[in-house]
Amino acid sequence: MERLFTFLLSEQHAMSHLTVTVFAFLCGTFAIRFLASARFRLKTQIILFGIAITIAGLTSFFDTLWSSYPYLSWHIPEPTTAIAAVVMFAMACVSAYFYLCPKRTIKTVILAGCALAFGLSFSAFTILVSIVKPFVLAYDLSAVLSVMVLGSTLCGFAFWELGSPAASRPRFFASILLALTLTVLPLGSMGSVLPFGEWMTVIQTPDSASFSPIGVIALSEFIAIIFLVGIASFLDVRVAVAQQREGERIRHLADGTFEGLLICRGTEIIDANQRIQEMTGLDLTTLRHRDMPDLFVTPPSQQMLSGGGSAALFAPEQLELIGPGKRRIPVEVLTREMAYVDGQPAAVLAVRDITERKAAEEHIRYLALHDSLTSLPNRRGLEMVLSQVIETSRQSGVQSAILGLDLDGFKAVNDTLGHHAGDILLKEVAARFQKQLRDSDYLARLGGDEFIIILRTIRTKDDALQLAKRLLACLWQPFKLSGHDAYVGVSIGVAISPRDGDSAQMLLKCADIAMYQAKLHGKGQVCEFAAGMDADLRERHDLELDLRGALSRGELTIYYQPLFSSAGKITAFEALARWPHPERGMIPPDRFIPLAEETGLIVPLGEWVLRKACTVAATWSSDISIAVNLSPTQFQRIDLVEMVSSVLKETGLEPCRLELEVTESLLMEDMEKALALVTDLRKRGVRVALDDFGTGYSSLAYLHNFPFDKVKVDRTFINKITNDPNAWTIVESIIVMSHKLKLRVTAEGIETGAQLSLLQGHGCDEMQGFLLGRPMPETDASRMAENESKTARKDHITVVQDINA
Ligand SMILES: Nc1nc2c(ncn2[C@@H]2O[C@H](COP(=O)(O)O[C@H]3[C@@H](O)[C@H](n4cnc5c(=O)[nH]c(N)nc54)O[C@@H]3COP(=O)(O)O)[C@@H](O)[C@H]2O)c(=O)[nH]1
């Protein structure tokens, strides 16, 4: 050892150390690069490594030799150098092979280091022995041994560093360690040779000189190997135990997760946790060495299959795993590359069962596309299906039909029996509609009381119209709701594809327009879409806007039509709303009253008519009454009685001079409520008349049950009484029956003298009609009322004078 220090510190030039070190570093860097590069095949890697080491070893050796003994004229022993070069190359290749062997352990790494150290030292001493011939080379045994151990260790560390997955800059540090090896071994080998002055002493000392240097190298290498491999084995055992513990720890962890874990090399499964065994129904032995794609229904993506190459976490992939009994399990797979317990890279596949998530997603999707009350598809679901139907019908040329349905009278059920009953009704209606459909037909609820039916294929439009009739009929039977019989009807609009449109929106709009037409035609109707219908609706929309404006600007007016007693005296005036439109002229109530009814404008309009008519009537000095029509919507107002009372109070009109005309339809919607209202109004002194009697149901029960003051026989009957005996029989019966029930009878629509005399002759109490007086403006009516009052006063005076006389 002492010899080594002397050599390094006093017999060597610093410049030589530097040259050797720099060159060794360069060659070491190349050698490490060849060893670590994945670009080369194994054989190429080994050969390139061998070449780099041989060049570095020989160059370092000769550089050290010439700088150590510059005064000697050395010659290069060619065959020996060649042999040394071959041995050095062979041992470098052996060490590279040990390093690159698939099952790398500390032991193999140390063996690689020892092989390289042996190669370098052996070559150095072989050349030295050859150079000094015929003299015997004198050396320091302990120095040789130390150099061998140090060289083997440094080289072993270089390999260990290079192969360590945890190292931060493995190539750099491995290059430095290998450079040190390539420096230490030639320098150390040279340093182990004793100075010439000591050679004779050594020769005379049999202990040291009797060993051949090659034998010593081999022996020292053998000792180094035994020593280092012993340590390596010890470390290997510890590492193996640690790895086993780590493996068990990881397995426990892996088994404890909710996710299935697969460890793969390439596509081969090398390990799997408990969860994936449960998910696949395969035990670990069956799973190991199996091809990973075989576990899935659909082949995993290339990215997942090539799971190696990057430690990046790939985007999760959704696949179907083949579960026990070939059950398909929806899974989400995350792939990541990492060093497995053996230190080698492996792809880890985390397989997450997403059955519940999928079910939840499916449920959310279902909710998004379905109506929660009836479980029918909603507008979104409908539009998707309708688009498909249109596409199919476009491709195949078949016709389809779209039916827009809106319930009639649903609001009344909702308002009177409550929303719960309304919900039950909607469900039952949906069930009744469904019963009328074929499997291929499609029923959806758009919300409220609106439904849509799609008939995917129809031969002619009659198929759709016939179904529409069946749908009308299926609602005829009453619905049992909270112990009540409830009735609803339906208005149906029919659109035909592709005739009426080529998009879902267009066809739905056409069905909707046709449905509105059906409503306008009196509800409970079926209406087929026709071009121009939308123009009607637009016109109606414009009219509605105008009516709102006219109401707010007070542009409406009232005409008054007189009613006469059978003696010819004016008993009342009926207030009839009129709309003098600035552009359209006088719009008749037949056009705007139904519109006001549908839009709810009838409520302010009716109140305005009542207030205005009462105000006017209150100015008349006579006791002539004022008759005002009440619409069904007004009748549903909770505060109707209060409203009427306050108008009478405001205008100062006596209640007995107000006559409210109600129709049968108004009573039918809620008999109990209607009876309560009529009774209440009567109690407050207001008279109530049943209007339009003879049309509608003409239920005699109403006459009997309701405390009406009078009955107005509809003009459609009065029209016919002189030429239709049946019509007269009915009118005559109504007069007789009403009188028996102590009700007065008014005949409306009298246009001829014959009609008047017939009615007068049979005791009709009151007459109204164009023959006697048309509806007239307020001024005319007021003048007439005043005249009537004067006549009455004159008559009164005449009677009094007659009595006095
Ligand atoms: N809720 C409200 N309804 C109202 C109001 N104002 C009018 N109406 C209702 O509009 C309908 C049409 O009314 P109108 O065009 O005014 O017709 C009335 C009379 O002009 C008509 N009539 C009267 N006599 C004759 C006749 O001899 N021949 C003939 N062809 N028509 C005649 O009858 C209508 C009055 O009918 P009725 O109300 O049944 O007494 C109409 O239904 C009005 O009720 C309003 O403010 N509110």
Describe the fold and architecture:
Keywords: Membrane, Transmembrane, Transmembrane helix. The structure is a single chain. With 805 residues, this protein is of the alpha/beta class. It folds into four domains: 2-237, no CATH class; 257-359, 2-Layer Sandwich (Beta-Lactamase); 370-531, Reverse transcriptase/Diguanylate cyclase domain (Alpha-Beta Plaits), CATH 3.30.70.270; 547-793, TIM Barrel (Alpha-Beta Barrel). 58% of the residues lie in helices and 17% in strands. It contains 31 helices and 21 strands. The strands form four sheets. An eight-stranded mixed beta barrel has the order 13-14-16-17-18-19-20-21, surrounded by four helices. Helix 3 (42-68) crosses helix 7 (170-192). The chain is rod-shaped, with a radius of gyration of 56 Å. It starts with a helix and ends with a helix. The structure holds ligand LFPHGCPZ. The site of ligand LFPHGCPZ has 25 residues, from strand 14, helix 21, helix 22 and strand 18.
